[in-house]
Amino acid sequence: MTAAPKPKEVSSRTGAMRWLKQRFPQLFDCEEPKPLGLHVRTLLLVHADAENIHPVSLRQAVTEHVRSKTYLEACAAKNSWRHSLDGLRLEPLSNDHRIYACGQLELLRRQKAK
User: Fold this and answer.
1) Which of 1, 6, 11, 77 has an alpha carbon 20 to 30 Å from 51's alpha carbon atom?
2) Residue 68 CA: distances (Å) to CA of 21, 23, 31, 52
3) What is residue 29's predicted lDDT score, i.e. its pLDDT?
4) What pLDDT, in 10s, does the model give residues 17-40?
5) What is d(CA 101, CA 51) in angstroms, rounded to the nearest whole number?
6) Domain 13-113: which topology?
């Protein structure tokens, strides 16, 4: 008996983002993203490897996601929480991370105003 062929590797940022939205819709909803738990990238790499998602593409997709305006707004919100891959609350976002998100939003506003 032969093993099932491995699916074709996803090696683009957009393909990885599509996979994230399908596999973890509770976290990667573009309209209402949730702050990710610390070290979630490590967990994502395990899932991605099993599903043949190229690690560089995954890193690029996650980086794009966490730099998005909607994600930063979710992080900057009062009483925001970090979430697991299952969408469950893990811990409150630290004040330092909330302040960082506010600073990044201000940078985005300034860039847009130029």
Assistant:
1) 1
2) 15, 19, 11, 25
3) 86
4) 999 999 999 999 888 999 999 989
5) 31
6) Fertility Inhibition Protein O; Chain: A; Domain 1 (1.10.1710)
Tokens standing for 54?
Answer: 């190229």
- The full set of domain ranges for the chain reads 13-113
Give me the phi and psi of 53, to 5 degrees please: -95, 125
**N-term to C-term CA, the chain:** 62
pTM for the whole structure: 0.85
Of the candidates 5, 4, 18, the residue with the CA atom closest to the CA atom of residue 53: 18
* Residue 27, H or E segment: none
CA distance 27 to 89: 11
